[in-house]
Amino acid sequence: MSAAAADRLGAVTSGSALELRGVTKMFGALAAISDVTMTVAPGERRAVLGSNGAGKTTLFNCVTGGFLPTSGTIRLFGEDVTGFPAHERIRRGLRRTYQISLLFGGLSVADNVYLACRGVNRYRFSLLRPRSGDPLVARAEELVEAVHLTAARKRLVSELSYGQQRQLEIALALAGAPRLILLDEPAAGLSPTERAELIAILGNLPAHIGFIIIEHDMDVALRVATKVTMMHNGRVFKEGTPAEIEEDPQVQELYLGDGTHAHG
Ligand SMILES: Nc1ncnc2c1ncn2[C@@H]1O[C@H](COP(=O)(O)OP(=O)(O)OP(=O)(O)O)[C@@H](O)[C@H]1O
Predict the structure, then answer these.
(1) What is the pLDDT of residues 170-204, one digit of tens each?
(2) Is beta strand 18-27 parallel, antiparallel or unpaired with respect to 30-40?
(3) Which CDD domains does the record match to this protein (predicted)?
(4) What's the rounded Cα separation, in Å, for the pair 8 and 264?
(5) Which domain, by its residues, includes 113?
(6) ipTM here
(7) Which residue, 10, 69, 197, 254, shows the most beta carbons closer than 10 Å to its own?
């Protein structure tokens, strides 16, 4: 490729929030993900689906900096971050939620969110009380509202329902100035009512904040995503709109047709 062509390509791709090119991660002889290429636009809502062991979590870990890929490149908002540690990616607006809760059980909802706001504003998890007029208090209130927890704002995390705790985790991921959030199975273990709440919360996130959601619950994934990446055996198997993925005969055969594949 000529330098001019490479420049043009760079100009096109630098508009993406996330770009993976040929990303492979080996564990010994096992390729957990293999030659994964995908591009996520700013503000896009992408679902990554696939049966157990398809490579979804490994993909997340490569994007967040938990794992260094064996080969391939990862660009975040146009910048090559392949070798960057996790905190450098967080500085660039990347966040993630985990399947395991990282909340402070002995603190209130409001305090958890306030500390997350403080944490990304230099005082990492400082336990100082908020001062009056602190703008982060107002910001924390907004985030509590965005995840539908205003009525529970004074309650201790340990007193919240499981679904409320998951909602709070989304508020923590929204602290600071996120531009892309990786959501690791946020609907796992939720009741139907809590799932509906989650769908509403994700649907109402500010348009400039994109997310990638790993989800075993197809209903949630296909309702919140505008585009779907289907993985199989560590590779990208299919990409399309939720409707295209749902109607694809190969996807149906591989994944949707067999309910046992849809639950991890
Ligand atoms: N740290 C590791 N060491 C060795 N093998 C691993 C490691 N992490 C993942 N694997 C393997 O890589 C493959 C992909 O795993 P991964 O957890 O990424 O899949 P997944 O799609 O997230 O699955 P699930 O839906 O069950 O969470 C699996 O075969 C898994 O056993």
Answers:
(1) 999 999 889 999 999 999 999 999 999 999 999 99
(2) antiparallel
(3) ABC_Mj1267_LivG_branched
(4) 42
(5) 102-176
(6) 0.95
(7) 69
Cβ of 24 less than 6 Å from ligand 1:
no
For atom 1 of ligand 1, the residue with the nearest CA is: 27
- 114 SS3 class: helix
The CATH code of the domain that includes 218 is 3.40.50.300
Tell me: the pLDDT tens digits for 206-218? Answer: 999 999 999 888 8
Ligand 1 site, residue 264, Cβ cutoff 6 A: yes
Tokens linked to 85: 């540690």
Q: For residue 176, which amino acid is it?
A: G
Closest listed residue to residue 213, CA positions, set 176, 173, 250: 173
Predicted TM-score of the model (pTM): 0.87
In a domain, 57, yes or no: yes
DSSP string, 15-61: T-SEEEEEEEEEETTEEEEEEEEEEE-TT-EEEEE-STTSSHHHHHH
DSSP class of 214: E
